[in-house]
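Researcher: Next entry in the queue.
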Amino acid sequence: MDIRDLRLYLHLCDSGNFSQTAKEMYISPSTLSRQIQRLEAQLGQALFIRDNRSVQITEAGTLFKHFATQTLQHYQQLQHQLKSDQTELVGELRLFCSVTAAYSHLPDILDQFRVQYPAVEIKLTTGDAADAVKKIQSNEADLAIAGRPKLLPAGINFADIGNIEMTLFMPKLKTNFSAQLHQSSPNWQQIPFILPEHGPSRRKIDRWFKQQKILQPHIYATVAGHEAIVSMIALGCGVALLPKVVIENSPDRIRERILEWPKNLVDPFEIGVCVQKKRLSEHVIAAFWQLVS
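Model: Structure for this entry, 293 residues:
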């Protein structure tokens, strides 16, 4: 097996789709299939369970994924050591953040980083911000932008880069709960809420429910990702307590359909960059961490 095979394998683990990985890695699906079969033959184990549409990783595949991730990290360290006589930092940096953070916080950081280290290749993955710490712990990303967890896991460092204001947002169009929202003291028990599945925002909202003695809130839906919640508010499905920055970075045609509650209901929360402490010895990661911390 070679480094190229390991990269293909890890991409397929993430995409779960042969056609997508083949397209994004610039090879044919048949070539990708042959290379995965060659890996399975070398290991004597099936790495994936295949069907017509997708693949599922096996137990042996999970073990091999960990090996492949560690091997690529060591290979990158070796490349840097072999080029230690060069003054320019080279390598790859995998970042994870929400779509909103990619617009609101990441550009300023990357602008500074790329000026100092133009030869470092940046790979960005976006998703639910509530999953950021898990992405770091599983080595799916080198660094991530995340809301500060209530309890920071052991082995994780967090560098604060600002505070996020949370505001109640509601649909502009007329709904069967609009009248409640225009009262000076709404009966929150009767208003449908759209909640994030988990993460710092969800903890803030659950705490607010308790403070307001809302024992059985009307939950319209729980959704992964703040950006999807914004769309549901615009459609009139319910209200949501969201980081204000999510609305500020939403498309104009969505913002035009949303109103902001005039009062702050919950306190802001910290946002920052997280990393595994043990990986701060890697030069590229250390360079980015020094910039943000």
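Model: DSSP finds 13 helices and twelve strands in the chain.
Researcher: Noted, moving on.
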